Amino acid sequence: MRKTDFLVMGGGVIGLSIARQLKRLYTDSSVVILEKESACGLHASGRNSGVLHAGFYYSPDSLKAQLTRQGNERLRQYCQEKNIHINQCGKLVVAKDHSDLPAMDELIKRGKANGIPLQEITEAEAKEIEPRVKTWERALYSPTTATVDPTEVVAAMVKDAQQEGVEIHYDSGYQSRQGAVIHCSRDSYDAGYIVNAAGLYADHIARDFGFSEHYRILPFKGLYLYSNEPPGTIRTNIYPVPDLRNPFLGVHVTVTSQGKAKIGPTAIPAFWREQYGNFENFKFSELVDVLIRQAGLFMFSEFDFKRLAFEEIQKYSRTHLVKLATSLMEGITPEQYETWGKPGIRAQLLDTKKRKLEMDFVLEGDSRSMHVLNAVSPAFTCSLPFAEHVCQHIQTQLGQA
Fold first, then answer.
1. Which among 55, 261, 267, 320 could bridge 69 via Cys, Cβ 3.0 to 4.6 Å?
2. d(CA 226, CA 255)
3. Measured between alpha carbons, how far apart are the two ends of the chain, in Å?
């Protein structure tokens, strides 16, 4: 039996950031991170796009809107301090035709309300930024959008956490709970306070503590196709105007931290939580649960899940994915995009009562535990201020204990 004041489950950027913030706030307390894998960041944190989002997509009353601008600035500063390369490539948001213009106007309003630098430019001005871009009449340019290598960020945070006195216990997957005792695959822990930042399994763990009553995680698979063109061929990220009713931004062109272009991601409904490959990490119980949830959304949902699922499954086809990207820029051919990148799984929270996908971050907790149930994009960008937000809730709960 090991004793610790704070036990954080999950060694992704969210778990690492929360653990580091707890150590700053409670300097004399012990903080342990449990990571079920042999290293940190092997799931969403190391498999995301690496985009530092600006924050103009989100409605002004959302937590995402409050944290993304600050997160962009803070993570950019952190990368500079750690000599992690940042590609200051910006982002163009383009319209396919006149029907996209009202949504583009909404993005302008949100950008202003959220205090985000965002430029409304003409088609000609967009082509000065990226000569191959396609847009209808006008576009938006976000100068503060950038890209980094997320694995470098995770590695730096791991090093910092350990230097600051946070212990990281690897190969320690959560198994069960008995009161304050947490049983894991290697040891058991007597924990004063528990933080659940377990990503794809956050809802499962939360239910053992009496939370996530009407929430379940639905997994969506994200795939990227990488270009074989030389680095620097494409100058900036190019995104379509999104459907603001959905949490997904659509297929876009991303320029990596090293200047390579990739198209994607998909948001294909997965059939179990860690379905990275054909039958990798297969669990029959998860398959049954996910299929039941998806069937419910097919029949009853606040959005057209049937259409979304059909459109996304088509993106397993490389030629189809490339065809979608041709609406964003000139000179894209299937011959240029032949290499699939490492798959990622988005842990998307579903409200089972309302039958809708949660668009914002979701926390639930009390004086014994805090559960990060929905930390979807742009959680990577928001990780530092988001950790402070979570720890403020923890302080409040501990003050009430």
1. 55
2. 10
3. 25
> What residues are paired with 169 via a beta bridge?
34
187: how many CB neighbours lie within 10 A of its CB? 13
Tell me the per-residue pLDDT of 95-137, one tens digit each, with 9 for 90 and over. 999 999 999 999 999 999 999 999 999 999 999 999 999 999 9
pTM to 2 decimal places: 0.96
CA pair distance 61, 389, nearest whole angstrom = 16
Contact predicate 71/382, CB 8 Å: yes
How many degrees, rounded to 5, is the angle at CA 148 between CA 146 and CA 151?
155
Reported as a pLDDT band with limits 50, 70 and 90, residue 401 is low
How many other CB atoms sit within 10 Å of the CB of residue 388?
16
Tokens 């209808």, located at residue: 136
Helices (H), 134-281: 150-163, 202-207
Distance CA 316, CA 23 (A): 43
Buried/exposed 281-310: b ≥16 CB within 10 Å, e otherwise: eeeeebeebbeebbeebeeebeeebeebbe
Spans of all domains in the chain: 1-50+149-214+358-401
DSSP string, 292-330: HHHHHHHHS-SS-HHHHHHHHHGGGSHHHHHHHHTTTBS
| Rounded-to-integer distance, Cα 82 and Cα 246, Å | 35
CA distance 94 to 101: 9
User: Residue 267's closest CA among 251, 281, 279, 283?
Assistant: 251
Centre a 10 Å sphere on the Cβ of residue 134 and count the other Cβ atoms it contains.
19
What is the CATH code of the structural domain delimited by 1-50+149-214+358-401? 3.50.50.60
Task: Return the amino acid letter for 128.
Answer: E
Helix (H/G/I), strand (E/B), else coil: 269: strand
> Which tens digits make up the pLDDT trace of 35-87?
999 999 999 999 999 999 999 999 999 999 999 999 999 999 999 999 999 99
Answer left, alpha or beta for residue 374, where phi above 0 means left and psi between -120 and 50 means alpha.
beta
pLDDT confidence of residue 302: 66
Q: Calculate the CA 131 to chain-centre distance.
A: 30
Residue pair 133/329 in contact by the 8 Å Cβ criterion? yes
